[in-house]
Amino acid sequence: MADKNASAPRATDNRSTVPVSDIFRQYISSDWAERTEGDPRPREQSEWAAARRARISMLYPGKRLLIPAGAAKVRSNDTDYAYRAHSAFSHLTGWASDSVPGSVLVLEPTVAGHDATLYFRKAAGRDSDEFYANPEIGEFWTGPRPSLAQVSHDLGLLTVDLADFERVLDTVDADTIILREGDRDLTDQVDGRRLLSADAESLEIDADTALARDLSELRLVKDAYEIEQLRRAVTATKKGFDDVIADREAIVAHERGERLVEGTFNRRARAEGNAVGYDTIAASGAHACILHWTRNDGAVVPGDLILMDAGIELDSLYTADITRTLPVSGVFSETQRLVYETVREAADAAFAIVRPGIRFREIHATAMGVIAKKTAEWGFLPVSAEESMKPENQFHRRYMVHGTSHHLGLDVHDCAAARRDLYLDGVLEAGMVFTIEPGLYFQPDDLTVPEEFRGIGVRIEDNILVTEAGAENLSIGIPRTADDVEAWLR
Ligand code: GLY
Ligand code: MN
């Protein structure tokens, strides 16, 4: 079955102390009050999700599409990681942080398009022992699950118990396409059925890959609901940065101050949202030169910079992705300020060109123009900035090996399966949201730069919305000039 929870072997039976007598079973199953359903009005996101389903439906006439939410992932034995549904599933259903693990959206082809049905493991009744005896999914153990009617109202979808999903599997044929990465176990079962189906000559893996691509590309332009969620994610994230600044004294006093930065930010993320959208990067001093420093076990030392790359994922699962680099003492040194303001110049130059009609890759090229010019001026490059900008040279990239921008949405690196033609080589459209995040990183042992630059790492990352007229920096409210950062810290 799709619900791996239901079938995966877990090492609990030999520890179970649940009474098994019939007397106990009868007793615990009796005398429970009737349940009342929650708000029957559809959720705001349900209409948006319906419009997205209509768009994918048009691309796949006559094909059955399976979009799994995915099963819970075992961390060890009977302990799971926090559950998060696959982003494509959330995008097409509107079901987000409260999705039930193992759910599957089925788009069944009709003459007019597709009928959508959401299969999920419905709440178990008091006539089964699940509610008290099943530590994986029982209500007494992990909380109640909604009824079929409740989710149907919430999301405006036909809902069916996952126990009946076997009927869908029985009709799997060569015209069935699955989002493979959504649920590997379910995909294996679908592959098996497709091989058995009379007209299937091979697994439909090419079609599956195309579906993953199309679902990714469906998210390149955000609708009004998504833009509002991203605004809110940025607002929540700003509060997380404010919290860290307010905690500065304790952070500096602790030998693993970076962990306190992470903890303080993550506290805000859990309070205001679902979680962090990715592991918080709290990189003090030379750790800032390690792009995805998430070990965060270093001290935060006055005189150094601390690079903080963090984003709050809301209950809707939309996330911000913000980086600020702060002088721990409250004031930049001369060299730190020079590097910082250069990175800001690169970010500002990149932002200035954003408008519908330009190519995504031009943003990176513009930022790199500033980075090449400045590092050449400082004498760090073996050639001129113009020479360095040639594709075969790129000496300046020694100090910034990452890209300048990525799409942002339900995933921090959103739309990752989109074709290059629509992503890197794509043309910007109003409604796209992406980061602009240039940086300069001078490794502590880099002999090409003067000593005072070594160990300095700076990144400034903002979340940008393409508008009809140009662009809006959604994170402009989080201080980003060197002067404003110093004022923020005061
Ligand atoms: N925030 C981390 C990254 O964009 O890679
Ligand atoms: Mn980023």
How would you describe this structure to a colleague?
- With 490 residues, the protein is α+β, with helices and mostly antiparallel strands.
- Helices cover 36% and strands 14% of the residues.
- A five-stranded mixed sheet has the order 6-5-4-1-7, sandwiched between helices.
- It binds glycine and manganese (II) ion.
- The site of glycine has 4 residues, from loops.
CATH class membership of the largest domain:
Alpha Beta
The distinct ligands, each listed once, are: glycine, manganese (II) ion
Looking at the structure, the CATH topology of the largest domain is Creatine Amidinohydrolase
CATH H-tier superfamily of the largest domain: Creatinase/methionine aminopeptidase superfamily
Q: Could you tell me the strand content as a percent range?
A: 5-15%
Number of domains: 2
| Record field, number of beta strands | 17
Task: Please tell me how large the radius of gyration is.
Answer: 26 Å
Put simply, the count of helices is 17
Going across the major beta sheet, what is the strand order?
6-5-4-1-7
Examine the secondary-structure arrangement and name the CATH architecture of the largest domain: Alpha-Beta Complex
**Taking all residues together, what is the mean pLDDT?**
94
Taken from the alpha-carbon principal axes, the silhouette is: globular
- First CA to last CA: what distance? 57 Å
| Low-pLDDT segments, ≥5 res | 1-8
Query: Which structural class best describes the helix and strand composition?
Result: alpha+beta
Largest sheet: 5 strands, mixed
Helix content: 25-40%
